[in-house]
Design goal:
Number of strands: 8
Shape: elongated
Order of helices and strands: HHEHEHEEHEHHEEHHHEH
CATH topology: Rossmann fold
CATH superfamily: Vaccinia Virus protein VP39
Number of domains: 1
CATH architecture: 3-Layer(aba) Sandwich
Largest sheet: 8 strands, mixed
Radius of gyration: 19 Å
Structural class: alpha/beta
Strand content: 15-25%
Helix content: 25-40%
Number of helices: 11
Length: 261
């Protein structure tokens, strides 16, 4: 598979993705960095517009952030310790055993996982850490949550790619061939205005596909229902996304590779 053949659900919304996708909690990156065998180099695979990469940059001397989408990388968040590079998940271009931490944020379900895992095993240092995470549907308040849930499941529900189902179980059903360890329960939190919430919803792959298929923006209809509940459009409300993390050491993966080899 070439970079032009990957499943591209987001390139056309790359600027909005960079503007409206939430940032991950600092505690997540601190916890992963504390488990890593060094702080020299981390690889953020399928980085999108770099939300995880810039978080990692607070703990590592250098972060290599790769994505197959040139459009996503063009809109990526700049940071002096983050180097962006276009590459497929299984063709990072990194040297063998050069990386202390490999991360995949909200993207493992899109990848060729066996090929990615093989690449992660190749580039991770002995005792290095691999981590993948996804987040559940946002939570605001019950009356608003009910409308957003209906939008998710019914309005744009038929347009979700099948891979999306894997996030609904918090990646618990996925194979993850690393020596796993647990992290504390975490949430993403952000104070959003109603237009910012709308911007986030418009980056959903199902919303993008719905708009392409129907020629209509389904978020506009949702906003008409939300406005009486939200209050002033610029009023900020706390939005929380439950975060689900799979993380583990490379030791078991390296042992499996040795036995197979």
């Amino acid at each position: 598979m070439t970079a032009e053949q990957f499943l591209d659900h987001f390139s056309q919304a790359a600027p909005a993705y960079a503007a409206f996708r939430p940032l991950y909690p600092r505690s997540l990156f601190a916890a992963l960095a504390a488990r890593a065998p060094s702080r020299h180099l981390a690889w953020d695979c399928a980085t999108g517009s770099g939300q995880a990469a810039v978080g990692l940059a607070g703990h590592f001397e250098q972060v290599i952030a790769t994505d197959a989408s040139a459009a996503q990388l063009a809109a990526a968040i700049l940071h002096p310790r983050v180097k962006y590079h276009r590459a497929l998940a299984h063709e990072s271009g990194l040297e063998q055993q050069s990386v202390a931490l490999v991360t995949v944020a909200q993207a493992l379900h899109w990848l060729d996982r066996p090929a990615f895992y093989e690449e992660a095993r190749r580039v991770l240092q002995p005792g290095g850490v691999a981590a993948a995470w996804c987040y559940a549907l946002m939570e605001i308040e019950p009356s608003i949550d009910e409308l957003v849930q209906s939008f998710y499941a019914e309005t744009v529900g038929p347009y979700w790619p099948p891979e999306r189902k894997l996030t609904e179980t918090g990646y618990r059903t996925l194979d993850f061939p690393f020596d796993e360890f647990s992290l504390p329960t975490m949430h993403i939190e952000a104070a959003l205005t109603c237009p910012e919430l709308a911007g986030s919803l418009r980056t959903w792959s199902a919303t993008i596909r719905c708009r392409a298929a129907t020629g209509h923006d389904p978020v506009s209809d949702l906003l008409r229902l939300l406005h009486p509940l939200w209050g002033a459009a610029e009023q900020r409300r706390l939005v929380r996304w439950p975060l689900f993390v799979r993380a583990g050491y490379a030791s078991r993966a390296c042992a499996l590779t040795a036995r197979i080899g």
